[in-house]
Write a structure and sequence with these properties.
By secondary structure, the chain is an alpha/beta fold. The chain contains nine helices and 14 strands.
Length: 312
């Protein structure tokens, strides 16, 4: 299991590239709002270059207008029609009362990074950006953090106060996770599925879960649980990727295992496009996602989170 480490070009999302800063996560609210417009709050579709309007008529009454060719007769407004003697129809809009639980993976395998910052810090930055967008749109944001110890949980709530609680909880949970792996004997990697089930228990019907993780050793029942939950609620994935995984320099590397064993190894090369293939596999199960490159930073994450926000 690698120790927490980053390269020399560490920047703003973390203190020294390792320690997550609650103040920095708070500051991301300005970046999250950049480029957001009312149109983005009424559009949806699959990730890609074309964004489409949400299907369906919605559930909230919006207006009453004269009948026109092609209107559905089921939506004729009888009161307005009787009052005026002309056919009128009632239009509706989507209620958009969103409850989103952000699931941050701070397990020991995520406390690793080779450029700019740790994978765990990048995951928190992306989730904070998305959370600020949801809160600004009137949605409710909750949190579930997976660590080697007890999980951190916040029920979905709305407004800036909720996001202040989320950013503070992320920073504290990350500090606790670093403390836990700083001991002489690393903790074994706990399964991610338990925190996924906990995140689901926080949501009302029609809620959303957004997972930020590299999905290293998520547990034997994780994929089955993820597929089952995706049939009932919307699940989105932020697949965190370190540069070392995508372009690994040749050579021998030291390692440390949870049982205390240490040594050096010549790792095999990671197949090109593995992250994309993994995302495509999840997309076939109805779980849309994006790849998050740790080294690029929050400026590059913002448009990815805007894209993900469109399908929540």
């Amino acid at each position: 299991m690698p120790s927490p480490s980053v390269g020399a070009d560490d920047r703003a999302g973390a203190e020294g590239g390792i320690h997550l800063s609650g103040e920095a996560l708070m500051g991301l609210r300005h970046l999250a709002r950049r480029g957001s417009a009312p149109a983005t709050r009424t559009l949806a579709g699959l990730p890609g270059g074309i964004v489409t309007r949400r299907r369906g008529r919605g559930s909230e009454p919006e207006d009453v207008r004269l009948w026109s060719e092609g209107d559905d007769r089921r939506f004729i407004d009888r009161n307005a029609t009787a009052r005026t003697g002309q056919l009128h129809v009632r239009t509706h809009h989507d209620e958009r009362d969103r409850a989103v639980v952000l699931l941050a993976d701070f397990r020991p395998s995520m406390l690793f990074g080779t450029r700019r910052t740790l994978r765990s810090v990048a995951a928190a930055e992306a989730l904070a950006l998305l959370g600020w967008r949801v809160a600004a749109d009137g949605g409710r944001v909750g949190l579930a953090v997976a660590t080697a110890g007890a999980p951190t949980v916040l029920r979905p709530a709305g407004g800036e106060r909720a996001m202040i609680a989320v950013t503070g909880a992320l920073a504290q949970a990350h500090a606790d996770a670093l403390d836990k792996v700083s001991g002489a004997r690393p903790e074994p990697e706990p399964p991610l599925e338990a925190t996924l089930g906990l995140a689901r228990s926080l949501l009302p019907a029609g809620g959303h879960i957004v997972i930020a993780s590299a999905l290293d050793d998520p547990g034997p029942g994780f994929d089955d649980l993820l597929t089952l939950l995706a049939e009932r609620i919307a699940i989105r994935l932020i697949l965190v990727s370190d540069a070392f995984e995508r372009a690994r320099p040749p050579g021998y590397y030291p390692f440390a295992l949870a049982d205390g064993h240490r040594g050096t190894a010549l790792p095999t090369a990671t197949p090109t496009g593995q992250a994309e293939a993994r995302l495509a596999d999840y997309a076939h199960r109805g779980i849309a996602g994006v790849r998050l490159d740790v080294e690029t930073g929050p400026e590059a994450y913002a448009p990815l989170m805007e894209r993900l926000d469109a399908v929540l």
